[in-house]
Design a protein that fits this description.
CATH topology of the largest domain: Rossmann fold
Number of domains: 2
Oligomer: single chain
Order of helices and strands: EHEHEHEHEHEEEEHEHHEE
Strand content: 15-25%
CATH superfamily of the largest domain: Response regulator
Distance between the termini: 20 Å
Length: 229
């Protein structure tokens, strides 16, 4: 996992140094910048492997930086991990919907930071299976073509919406999806639903999947993710 290039963007010097030091100690190459403008320039010119992006930046803020990165063909595949302060749940949701891959809440421990960075880099190296590919995770098997799910070989009857939500989560284990993203997948964009309706589908999934359902984790204030292990 060493030698990947990480671009760290934060206007707080102590955060830049803390993050940079811990990444470099793990063998990563680190570039530090403190403005959104510099982040965009280096993202295009230096092709880093991942961007750690603070949302509160002078000039172009982190959300706008994320939006530009994900809309530019030259940088669209670049993983972005947001650094956020506690209480910024609305910004986290917006960032994820703009295409950010994960987020870390300040204050954070170096161990958590490194684990999340490495997890995102692993996911980049292992792209999601095709939408029609069978997903097999130990006791859980999802067969999109047959629209079937089984746990330990036993079929699990799911509604169409439950199936589509589970499939989306399981295709990207570890990724955080907002409630609106899950509804867009299950019903098509702009379907008029509430956050509560997504929660109801998740409750149903957890109940029907039994012990496997515990791998569907709630990300407070944001949405859900499917635990990798």
């Amino acid at each position: 996992m060493a030698h990947e290039h990480i671009l760290v963007v934060d206007d707080e010097e102590d955060i830049l140094e803390l993050v940079g030091y811990n990444l470099e100690r793990e063998g990563f190459k680190v570039t530090r910048v403190d403005t959104g403008e510099d982040a965009l320039r280096l993202a295009r010119d230096k092709s880093p492997d991942l961007v750690l992006l603070d949302l509160m930046l002078p000039g172009i803020d982190g959300l706008e930086v994320c939006r530009i990165i994900k809309q530019d063909a030259r940088t669209a595949s670049l993983p972005v991990v947001m650094l956020t302060a506690r209480g910024d749940e609305a910004d986290v949701v917006v960032g994820l919907e703009l295409g950010a891959d994960d987020y870390i809440t300040k204050p954070f421990s170096p161990k958590v930071l490194l684990a999340r960075v490495k997890a995102v880099l692993r996911r980049r190296e292992s792209p999601a299976p095709r939408k029609d590919a069978v997903i097999s995770m130990k006791e859980l098997v999802i067969h999109p073509g047959k629209h079937q799910v089984s746990v330990k070989g036993n079929p699990v009857p799911l509604t169409s919406t439950e199936f589509l939500i589970l499939h989306q989560l399981a295709r990207r284990p570890g990724w955080v999806f907002t409630r609106q993203q899950l509804i867009d997948v299950a019903r098509g964009e702009n379907y008029p639903v509430t956050d509560r309706s997504v929660d109801v589908h998740i409750v149903g999934l957890r109940k029907k999947l039994g012990p496997v359902g515990k791998r569907i984790e709630t990300v407070r204030g944001v949405g859900y993710r499917f635990r990798e292990k």
